[in-house]
Amino acid sequence: MEANLTAIAVAETWDNGKPIRETLAADIPLAIDHWRYFAGVPRRAVFGIDKHTVAYHFHEPLGVVGQIIPWNFPLLMAVWKLAPALAAGNCVVLKPAEQTPWSVLKLVELIGDLLPAGVVNAVNGFGVEAGKPLASSPRVAKVAFTAETTTGRLIMQYASEKIIPATLELGGQEPEHFLRIRCVPA
């Protein structure tokens, strides 16, 4: 990503209209930090807690992980899903939002030569054409979805029909609560 900052920033701007300077100053540096963090995670498999306790962390890949990316932060959200899945040894099928596919496709193109063929794949299309088959395929071991609640319900339904674990990050599921606090003199 560092070697292709401008190309990635232009693709992100073309996709969603975000200023290039914002992508260069925020999204891409955060994405690069995420890659670096997860590149180091697999090396940390044994931890000494104290002189009598050792914790082992075993990395067991699930297989193929389907990841459905939202429109609002396509590049950053793709990396947030892609980096941990790859670090855990999984293959990934990314489905970018149909409104903003270009930066995700550019990312897949740029990392394509760094990984064995078929480890990272991208599919394009509308939800029923691409998202539903991805979320309901018996070849997919896990589905990760970020977007709005209505589509999230459908993804959960599609995945549950084949008993595929799904992680759903849905808009509006955690509303803030404001409380009126009244100060009473002592």
Automatic annotation (TrEMBL):
Keywords carried by this UniProt record: Oxidoreductase
GO function terms (MF aspect): aldehyde dehydrogenase (NAD+) activity
EC annotation from Swiss-Prot or TrEMBL: 1.2.1.3
Keyword Oxidoreductase: yes
Source organism, top-level taxon: Bacteria
Pfam families named in the record: Aldedh
Segments forming domain Aldehyde dehydrogenase: 1-175
The keyword Oxidoreductase is annotated on this UniProt entry: yes
Top EC group: oxidoreductase
InterPro entries: Ald_DH/histidinol_DH, Ald_DH_N, Aldehyde_DH_dom
Entry's family note: Belongs to the aldehyde dehydrogenase family.
Name assigned to this protein: EPTC-inducible aldehyde dehydrogenase
Organism annotation: Nocardia cerradoensis
